[in-house]
Design a protein that fits this description.
The strands form seven sheets. Strands 1, 23, 24, 25 and 26 form a five-stranded antiparallel β-sheet that branches. A five-stranded antiparallel β-sheet has the order 14-15-16-17-18, with no helix packed on it. The chain has a four-stranded antiparallel β-sheet with strand order 8-9-12-13, with no helix packed on it. A hairpin with a 2-residue loop joins strand 14 and strand 15. With 379 residues, it is an all-beta fold. It contains one helix and 26 strands. The structure holds 2-acetamido-2-deoxy-beta-D-glucopyranose (NAG) (2 copies). One 2-acetamido-2-deoxy-beta-D-glucopyranose (NAG) binds at residues 327, 360-362. Residues 327, 360-362 line the site of one 2-acetamido-2-deoxy-beta-D-glucopyranose.
Length: 379
């Protein structure tokens, strides 16, 4: 498609053709300034790979492996595979970096199905493998009726030996989170239930785990396969649990037939840089953003790509920020964006908060996780 033709094509999609104006296609933003706000943490729990979602007037953070600190300040046992915690907003609307609540139980926040070595809080099995039920994305809030907030998280059921999965494209559990806004216990976390421990079957695409967002009442769910294909599904936000309502982006159109894992027509090129990250809509830029890390990267190098439509075309990801890496062999990962932490609680201003997990070695070869939160002003 020639450049001129593609401009005309997009102006048609955006309704610009009727006025004769040519709409500008999304471009990747560049950085005006950055500032490190601090470490998102609570005093008592060492938490890996956290992401945030807005629940009511607070941020809910869900994290991977979590553990207490010993009396020497070094993280100690037990490890539990996921945890959740709250943070507040300061009076000026900026996010507090202090996490609180959810530290007591020392059991996985995302409950283990009984057949996934649930006898261990880390999902450790007798044969030395482990069910690492780790969230890749924060909960997707699908409704808030003023009294109850409903959200969902998709977690791929990786069974790992070391860090190698036994099945490259495992099944995916769908979890539902429910929170009463009138709860009397400020520290209580949303309750979690398992909708289906194999919502997506083994050797199919784990839609929702790689990234997700709700736009105009529709939930858009990205999945990434072990071969690097990024695929997209959509469903009405109120019908997330109903597989029969899903549509899938296949060969340039929406269809209700779920494609196979290796379908050659489902990849959305440049929807992400290959690693973990966050999709969101910028109402300031009137375009979709993805912020995260490159594939096979363990450094805090942040990439951004943008598109007019979630189905693309997406621009080539561009690197916009490098944070300080930790001194562990896997020094930085789980790069995230936090649109819900912006003062408007949505990306209606030309800025974003980003974070990553910095992994440092302390004590006797133990990982200490910190979560630097960085404010980015775009040009
Ligand atoms: C790694 O970083 C941690 C945390 O800053 C520090 O305590 C430790 O001494 C560092 N280790 C090495 C080998 O530099
Ligand atoms: C530290 O732990 C990592 C991960 O378990 C391991 O790969 C590495 O060999 C360990 N290093 C030392 C010095 O024990």
């Amino acid at each position: 498609m020639s450049l001129v033709y593609s401009f005309a094509f997009f102006s048609l999609l955006l309704g610009g053709a009727s006025t004769g104006t040519i709409s500008k296609r999304a471009t990747n933003p560049t950085v005006a300034s950055t500032s490190v706000i601090g470490n998102v943490a609570d005093a008592s729990i060492n938490r890996d790979s956290c992401g945030s979602s807005l629940i009511g007037d607070r941020a809910l953070w869900t994290c991977r492996d979590s553990q207490p600190y010993g009396s020497n300040g070094v993280p100690t046992l037990p490890i539990w595979s996921s945890s959740a915690s709250w943070s507040d907003f300061n009076l000026d609307g900026t996010p507090s970096t202090t996490l609180y609540g959810g530290g007591g139980s020392m059991t996985p926040y995302f409950t283990y199905p009984s057949d996934y070595c649930s006898g261990s809080t880390a999902g450790s099995c007798d044969d030395g493998t482990r069910y690492a039920l780790w969230p890749d994305s924060p909960p997707l809030v699908t409704s808030n009726d003023g009294s109850t907030v409903t959200a969902y998280t998709w977690i791929r059921n990786y069974r790992i030996a070391g860090l190698s999965p036994e099945v490259a494209d495992p099944s995916t559990t769908l979890y539902k989170l429910t929170y009463s806004l009138s709860t009397s216990d400020k520290n209580a976390l949303p309750t979690v239930s398992i909708v289906n421990e194999r919502f997506w079957a083994e050797n199919s695409i784990g839609y929702g785990a790689y990234g997700n967002l709700v736009q105009d009442g529709t939930a858009y769910l990205f999945g990434k396969t072990s071969s690097g294909t990024v695929a997209l599904a959509k469903v009405a936000a109120g019908s997330v649990e109903d597989l029969s309502q899903y549509q899938y982006w296949v060969n340039g159109a929406w269809t209700s037939t779920q494609p196979s894992l290796n379908d050659g027509t489902i990849n959305i090129q440049n929807a992400g840089a290959g690693g973990q990250g966050t999709f969101y809509y910028s109402s300031y830029a009137k375009s979709f953003y993805w912020v995260g890390q490159a594939g096979f990267s363990v450094s805090a190098d942040f990439y951004v790509t943008t598109a007019d439509s979630l189905t693309g075309p997406w621009n080539s990801p561009s690197k916009f920020y490098s944070g300080t890496n930790g001194n562990y062999s896997l020094g930085a990962y789980s790069l995230q964006a936090h649109p819900d932490l912006l003062p408007s609680r949505s990306a209606s201003t030309n800025e974003i908060y980003i974070s990553y997990t910095k992994n440092d070695v302390v004590g006797d070869n133990v990982s200490l996780y910190t979560t630097p939160l960085i404010h980015v002003a775009w040009n």
